[in-house]
Design brief:
- This protein has 456 residues and is of the alpha+beta class.
- Among the domains are: 102 residues, no CATH class; 212 residues, Transposase Inhibitor Protein From Tn5, Chain A, domain 1 (Alpha-Beta Complex).
- Helix content is 33%, strand content 18%.
- Strands 1, 2, 3, 4, 5, 6, 7, 8, 9, 10, 11 and 12 form a twelve-stranded mixed sheet that branches.
C-alpha cells in the first residue's frame, strides 16, 4: 500500500523542524507542554498538535505570508511533502491547540541567555512597555479597544499593550505580559515583579517610578534604578534625610529607603548641544560600592528594552498587524512571536558568548560617558584607477574632493559626543580604594548562570 501524505508529514515532523532553531525549541519540550494542556491529538492528522506549534512559531518568522505560504516554507526542506492543508484546516488546528501550550512554552524558554550584562555582581535588566496593533474585527474590538484622540478621531486599529522584562546585553526576555491598552503599564509591571529576585538590578523609565513598583521589587530582593520626575514635573517629594559625599542623598519613596542622584547629562551632535536633568532613584544606598557617576552612566542601558521592541515590531513583524481575528488567536500569536524572538536572541547570545575573546572583555559603551578615542578602522582596499577616471567618477556621484582639511572618514578623530556631571561634589576616597573593595567587579562581567525557573 502506498504511503499516504498524512503518514509522511507526521513522520517527517517527528523530530520537529525549525531549522537551526529546533535545538532551542526541542520537540520533547513541545510534547510536554501539549500533554500538560491535554492538547495532544487523539488520532493521526495532517496537522498534529506538535506541527501546529512549529507552524505558529514559523508564522512569526514569516509575518508577511499567509498560513499556507508559511506551511510551504516549513516543509520545504523535508522533501516528498506534496499535500498542503487548506485554510480551513489550519484555522481549525490553531483553534484546537489554543493559547495555553504557547504560553507555557514561552514561560519555560524565558530566561537570560549566557552573556547577559552583570554590573558589580548584579544582573542588569530593563522594564518597559509598548503598544502594537491587532486586526479590526468584531471579536477583537470587544477586548482590545482603539485609542482615542488625534486629528482623525482615534486609532485605525485596536491596540495591545505589551510589557516585558529584558536582560541587558543579550536582550533576551525574562518575562512578559500583555493585554488591552485600557490597563496601564504600571499594572502590568507589577505582574512582572514575580520574576525578580536577589542579584538583579532593575532599570525603568519615569513612567514606572511609582512607590508601589519600587517597594514590590525591593520586597523580592532585587535592586532598582529608575528615573523619577522632578518636583516641578509633579514628581514625588524626595526630602533629604542624609547628604552623601558623592552628591547624592538618602530619602524615602513611600515606605522604601532610597538614594537620589541628580545628574546633568550633556549630549553634543552636529546639529546642537543639549543638556538634560536626570533624577535617578535607587535602592543601592552605599556610594562607596556603587558610585553615583557610574549609576548615571549605567542607566542608559535601559534603552536596550526599546531596541528589543524595535526588533519585535519592525524587524520581525515589519510593522504589520497580527493575523488573528479573535482574542484567543491574538494571545496565541503573541506568545508565538515572543518564542520566535527569544529563540533568535538566545542563539545570538550563545554565539557571541562562545566566540568572545576572554582576553578582551566586552565594554558597555554609554552615551552618558565622555569617550574620546581614535577610529582604528582601516580603509577598504580599492582597485587601481587612473586619476582622471577617479575624478570623473567622483564628480558623477557628487563626492567631495579629499583634502588635508577634509580627510576621509577613517582618518577623522572620533567626535566627543556627550558629558556627564553629577551636580554635587565627588567623594574624597582614592580610586584604588574602590579597586581593593571586595564588592568591586568589572562592568562588563557576564552572567553564565541561568535561573532554574525558566531554563529548558
Amino acid at each position: 500500500m502506498p504511503q499516504s501524505a498524512i503518514d509522511r508529514v507526521a513522520r517527517a515532523f517527528a523530530p520537529g523542524h525549525l531549522g537551526e532553531l529546533s535545538a532551542l525549541v526541542p520537540v520533547e519540550l513541545v510534547d510536554e507542554v501539549l500533554a500538560r494542556h491535554r492538547a495532544t491529538e487523539q488520532r493521526v492528522r495532517l496537522l498534529p498538535s506538535r506541527v501546529v506549534v512549529y507552524l505558529l512559531v514559523a508564522g512569526a518568522l514569516f509575518a508577511g505570508l499567509g498560513w499556507q505560504q508559511v506551511w510551504d516554507r516549513l516543509v520545504a526542506g523535508l522533501g516528498h511533502v506534496d499535500s498542503c492543508p487548506s485554510r480551513t484546516a489550519i484555522a481549525l488546528a490553531l483553534r484546537r491547540v489554543g493559547p495555553g501550550p504557547l504560553r507555557s512554552l514561552f514561560e519555560v524558554l524565558a530566561c537570560p541567555a549566557p552573556g547577559s550584562t552583570r554590573w558589580r555582581g548584579l544582573l542588569v535588566c530593563a522594564l518597559d512597555g509598548t503598544v502594537t496593533s491587532v486586526p479590526d474585527s468584531p471579536a477583537n474590538t470587544i477586548r482590545y479597544v482603539k485609542q482615542r484622540g488625534g486629528p482623525t478621531g482615534g486609532g485605525s486599529y485596536p491596540g495591545l499593550r505589551l510589557v516585558a522584562l529584558v536582560a541587558c546585553g543579550t536582550r533576551t526576555l525574562i518575562d512578559a505580559t500583555f493585554g488591552p491598552t485600557t490597563t496601564g503599564e504600571t499594572v502590568y509591571a507589577q505582574v512582572l515583579t514575580r520574576s525578580l529576585h536577589a542579584g538583579m538590578l532593575l532599570l525603568a523609565d519615569r513612567g514606572l517610578s511609582s512607590a508601589a513598583l519600587v517597594a514590590a521589587a525591593h520586597a523580592r530582593g532585587a535592586h532598582v534604578l529608575v528615573r523619577a520626575r522632578t518636583a516641578a514635573a509633579n514628581g514625588p517629594a524626595l526630602p533629604v534625610t542624609r547628604a552623601l559625599d558623592d552628591g547624592s542623598w538618602l530619602s524615602m519613596l513611600g515606605a522604601t529607603r532610597v538614594r537620589v542622584i541628580d545628574a546633568q547629562i550633556t549630549s553634543a551632535t552636529t546639529a546642537a548641544t543639549t543638556t538634560s536633568h536626570y533624577r535617578l532613584v535607587t535602592t543601592l544606598l552605599d556610594p562607596r560600592t556603587h558610585p553615583a557617576d557610574q549609576l548615571a552612566g549605567l542607566y542608559h542601558q535601559r534603552w536596550q528594552v526599546e531596541t528589543a521592541y524595535l526588533e519585535l515590531k519592525s524587524t520581525i513583524l515589519g510593522g504589520r498587524v497580527l493575523r488573528a481575528r479573535t482574542p484567543d488567536g491574538i494571545e496565541q500569536e503573541v506568545y508565538a512571536l515572543l518564542i520566535a524572538y527569544q529563540a533568535l536572541r538566545t542563539a545570538i547570545g550563545r554565539r557571541d558568548h562562545h566566540h568572545r575573546d576572554p582576553a578582551r572583555p566586552r565594554q558597555l559603551h554609554d552615551r552618558a560617558e565622555r569617550r574620546t578615542r581614535p577610529d582604528h578602522r582601516q580603509p577598504a582596499r580599492r582597485r587601481h584607477r587612473s586619476p582622471d577616471r577617479t575624478a570623473r567618477r567622483d564628480r558623477r556621484r557628487g563626492h567631495r574632493t579629499t583634502t588635508a582639511s577634509n580627510p576621509p572618514p577613517h582618518e577623522r578623530p572620533h567626535r566627543q559626543t556627550s558629558d556627564l556631571q553629577v551636580q554635587r561634589p565627588r567623594p574624597q576616597h582614592r580610586p584604588q580604594d574602590l579597586q581593593d573593595h571586595p564588592d568591586h567587579h568589572d562592568l562588563d562581567k557576564t552572567d553564565a548562570h541561568l535561573t532554574s525557573r525558566h531554563c529548558p
